[in-house]
Amino acid sequence: MIPQVRILSDEEVQKMHTRALDVLEKVGIKYESPRALQLLEAEGQKVDYASGIAWLKPDLVERCVKSTPRTITLAGRDPKHDMILDGTRLRVTTNGQGTFTQDHRTGVRRQGLVQDLRDSTKVGHHLDVVDYIWPMVVPFDVPCPSRVLPEMYHSFAMTTKHNQHEIQLPEHVPFALEMLEVLAGGKESLRRRPLYSCVACTVSPLQHEPHMAELCIDLARAGIPIVIWPMPLTGATAPVTVAGTCLMSLIEFLSGVVLFQVAAPGCPLIYPLGPEVLDMKSGMAVCAGPEIPLFNLVLGQMAKFYDVPALGVGLNSDAKVPGIQAAYESMQTGLAAALSGADLLVGIGVLDDNNTMSLTQMIVESEIARMVKRIREGVVVSEDTLMVHLIEKAGPGAHFLGFKETLAGLKKGDVFFPRFSFRNAYDKWFEEGHDEITSARAEVERLLALPDPDPLPPEIDRELKRILAAADKACAESAA
Questions:
Q1: What three-state secondary structure class fits 131?
Q2: 453 vs 348: CA distance, rounded Å
């Protein structure tokens, strides 16, 4: 049995749904994009081109939710990394996209570079608990106008796992799709096995950024899965209550579902369970307070109600450096995300409310992620697992060390063995000079010393670089 927490009653789930429909119909959503408004108007929705607002009828919302597929595929450059999202397994990604890098050798924080992006992708590739990659840091040594495209290139060059990323401008889309078609082997191959999924954030309260809305229409029509990510901030861009913030997230997600399903019926969409809280004392956004697990549990249950793939938000920390705070915040957010029933969990390796990438923290959180995955696997109760015959055979006062079933169970993974945590004797810890941060840094060095993942074939690499050069030229001409 897979463990899953239900925090809402059936009546509360229905109330959340009904109130979301009420707001979409009576208050409306600001899309601003004329193209989006035209699509919605063609579906019989009331729109106002001057304000950019559309009012969505409940029957259209429910129709679009039903056309959103529950089971989708996120493919890897190597098919062995393909992921089928059907609710049966939890998949973990790295966290993106930090502005800064905390150097794992010196501990000094600085702006991110291309090498940091490549190193973090390589470490994520070699960590088996990481199922797919979100590029972890913004490289400031790349020209700004077309930066997302080199980020895509360097990430695919350093892993054969699925990539999830962001595109900011509509003019980037043709180049991004051309790159993805080269990597996938054509348009239909890309549609069948999307190597890439796009994160699209709404603008709370109740708005879509028009450029993002338009570019995602094109991506959805190309078969690219869209992660519709509302980020309401409790007490600032959402009500101060957990329930009110969750309702805001739900409304904005449904407004994205309607737009993209109208544009591309049956397109794959993913719901992230990711609001944050405004700390009224510091003025900082908070990604790891106790409200975050509650957001995961409430919105995870709503994702089940809508029967859509969900991305849990956990393994997060507001801590500035790897350490005790980072560990306990990462565990509480990650575990709640897993118990929400989410298909995906983002993600390891970023501190300081997702602002600072840390390879050291990646190692610590990879261990936490393994524990969280083990808990999510749950318990199978059967005649084989109850092992009554062994209990009868052992009888009172005996042990089970000598049974062949014990050894077989250990090999099969019935008991979790850590990769990083220390479980030996108290004295041995001090005799061997163990220290978590030192050990994590050493593991980073070991992984970076491994061979690079499968390189891009030379002909594909040349073609991608040609596309990047064309994108740079087009963006430069547009800016001139």
A1: coil
A2: 20
CA atoms within 13 A on the CB side of 157: 19
Peptide bond into 97 cis (omega under 30): yes
**Structure pTM?**
0.95
- List Cβ neighbours of 155 (8 Å cut-off, separation of 6 or more): 117, 121, 133, 135, 163, 165
pLDDT by residue (tens digit) across 438-471?
999 999 999 999 999 989 999 999 999 999 999 9
Q: Using one digit for the tens of pLDDT, what is the confidence trace for 267-315?
A: 999 999 989 999 999 999 999 999 999 999 999 999 999 999 999 999 9
Closest CA to 357 of 155, 157, 93, 95: 95
Please tell me what DSSP assigns to residue 465: H
In the sheet with 285-286, reading across from the earlier edge strand, the strands are: 233-234, 276-278, 285-286
Average pLDDT of span 246-250? 98
Q: Give the CA radius of gyration of the chain.
A: 23
- DSSP secondary structure string, 234-259? ETTTB-SSHHHHHHHHHHHHHHHHHH
Tokens of 464: 């991608």
Order the strands of the 109-111 sheet from edge to edge.
Answer: 109-111, 100-102, 356-358, 350-351
Distances from the Cα of 43 to the Cα of 21, 57, 60, 403, 412, angstroms:
17, 10, 8, 67, 54
Residue 286 near residue 332, CB atoms below 8 Å: no
Question: What type of residue is 440?
Answer: A
Q: Which residues contact 458 (CB under 8 A, 6 or more apart)?
A: none
> If we measure between CA atoms, which residue out of 427, 416, 426, 349 comes closest to residue 379?
416
Please give the angle made by the CA atoms of 171, 172 and 173, to the nearest 5 degrees.
95
* Phi and psi angles of residue 442, each rounded to the nearest 5 degrees, phi first: -65, -35
pLDDT at residue 216 is higher than 90:
yes
